Amino acid sequence: MNISEFWRRNRQSGLSARHIRRLLNEVERYERIFKGSRGYGFLDWDVRANHMFWDGGFWEYLDYDGRDMKRISSPDSFLEFVHPEDREMLQNAIARHLKMNGPGDALFRIRRKHGGYVWAEVRVEAIRDDTGKVLYTSGLIFDVTKQKDVEGALMLSEARHSRIIKASNDGIWEWTAEHGGFHFSSRCWEQIGFGDGDDVINDGVDRLEAWRSRIHNDDLVLFDKTLNDHFIKKSPFDVEYRILGKDREWRWIRARGQMHYAADGKPWRMSGTNMDITELKRAEERVLKAKEDAEKANRAKSDFLSSMSHELRTPLNAILGFSQLFDLDTNLTPDQRENIQEIYKAGEHLLGLVGDVLDLAKIEAGRLSIGLEPVDPKLMLRDCVNLIQTQADARGLEIKYRFTTESGCRVLADRRRLKQVLLNLLSNAVKYNAENGAIRIDCEYSDHGQARIAISDTGRGIPTTLQDSVFQPFNRLDAENSNVEGTGVGLVISKRLVEQMGGAMGFHSIEREGSTFWLQLPVAEAGMHADVGALVREPDVAPVPSPSAGPAPLGLDFTGDRKILYVEDSLPNQRLMRQVLQRFPQIHLAVVGDGFSGLFEARTLQPDLIIMDINLPGMNGFETLNILK
Question: What pLDDT score does 599 carry?
Answer without folding.
Answer: 93
